[in-house]
Amino acid sequence: MEIRVMSWNMAGAKLFEHLDPPPGPAAGSYIAAFRDVWDRSIGPWLGTPQGEGPDIMLLQECIGFEDLSPEPTGRWQSGKMLLEQIFPGYECFFFPSVTSHKNPHPGKWQRYENGGEVDACIPGYVDARQGYGICIRKGLGSRKLWIPYRDPRNASADADLPGPDCHACFESIGFTPGLYLGSRDTEPRAVLMGRTRLESADETRYLNYLNVHLNTLTGEREGSIRLNRMASSSRLRQIDLILDNVVSAYQEASEYKMPDTVTGGKADIWIIGGDFNATYDAEEIEHIRRMGFVDALPDKQLHDADPDSPYHGQTGTKWSLHNASTPAVVLDHIFCGLEHSTFAAGGVDVSGSRRPYRPHFDRAEFASDHAVLYAKIRLPA
Questions:
Q1: Whether the predicted pLDDT of 48 surpasses 70
Q2: Which CATH topology does 2-378 take?
Q3: Where are the domains of the chain?
Q4: What's the pLDDT at 49?
Q5: What is the DSSP letter of 358?
Q6: Direct distance between the N- and C-terminal alpha carbons of the chain, in angstroms, rounded to an integer
């Protein structure tokens, strides 16, 4: 039994600076740019459609809009609609974390509004949204986190099948630093939890996955011990919340959960992936490893779509779009593990995982500064 997981920080906020003019869709060029990257760069790298496409995609810094005018038009499309046009063959879900209406600080949004710094502006009746995406390969399907039976022994084997909108299959757990001041340091972050059921000829196994984007502080990793310690400490608190108040809390819940008779008592598999904003030797990443989670991408050497790129072969998943002499750094990760125990030695096979990938963008104004991560995880029986 195996699961294929992709994680990517799409750095989608660049869309706000490059909206297409009215009356057409504001995100038309953005959709075309990312769809081209998916079809012509990421797809061939994965070898699709020969069965190597991801089952689950964990996406950070996705973009969407909500038109709140009395007569909405097709110009302002939701995050879900944008993702579905970029990633065909997937059921896509969008979870906003910071929006122009909910977090209206002008330091973030004023430049994109009427009279700001961009030609095609975002009108006041449109809620611009930045957040997270989860894309599930069609046919795999999602499962409810909770079932409507206090005593799970009364539940049928399909009690966790979702309704049409799958709202009961996900939960967003926020990392709110306080008042949003329009800066990266105070930006609300979150972890998104989802659940699916893996089936093979002789086995059923539940997989819970977490899409994370931990915080970062302006100026860290630039020589300041104080900033580095503050940033690391804040992420350690977020990691503790994930491990204690999400992973353990879910495993220890005894009510409204699917009964063990469905899985034969086998423990849930957990995937934790995303932009951790922490290097692979950082204390917060070591903390995850000490809890028994396996690094699903042991090879951190960057594979660049352009073999002549200075980043090709560097160790890293994040780079500068403005200064190629700045070395890449590993900030994105995918981990696999259990909650109550650890895998036996050699129990998880990640040999099919790929090196971090830097795709090619023909439209450089939309290029992400994060690598695509792809983990192929063969699970123990």
A1: no
A2: Deoxyribonuclease I; Chain A (3.60.10)
A3: 2-378
A4: 56
A5: E
A6: 7
